[in-house]
Amino acid sequence: MKNLGYIFIGLAIWILSSCTTNRFHTTRVYEIDFSKFKTYGWLPPVDSLSKDYYNNDIAKANIMSAANKEIEARGLTYSKENPDILFRYIAIVNNKSRLVYSHPTYFGWGGPWWGWYPWAGYAYYGPSVPIGKQKVRYGHIILEAIDRNNKTVIWQARGTSEVDAPEKAINALPNLIHGIMKEYPIKSTK
User: Where is the DUF4136 domain (predicted)?
Assistant: First the structure.
């Protein structure tokens, strides 16, 4: 019975590790004190290659509402008149390919089943080798902060996730924006 528990734990870890996760990258100008910015505004989004995943009213509304919530949680207030800092976003969806690998072959002894048994040992046969390519579509949301006075980008962060359906990609935008804004130099107060 104890071994059955190990099998379930191993299976759960394998399933969770095979799930896609969001990846985040950021860069900034380190000499700038971001706490001096009190108000923010928006620039129009940069025209991008979003293949209609993020190029619709629902996606735009989800991006803007999630970003506004995250920005305001960092102590900034929206202002149409002379904001201290300007934000804009870029949405990109691109196609890539990745290698698909075979599973290594395991065999063991000590019982009527193939597999690893702690009381009997195991043997390993064959490495995991590439057997083909799989097409994958990635969605990227890039948020940029621009200093209004000198009109230069002072912070940029990108969130990337694997997308396989437009509806799922659009519904996942608030989580992606939340992860992007975790990279902002000022942490959330909420």
Answer: 30-185
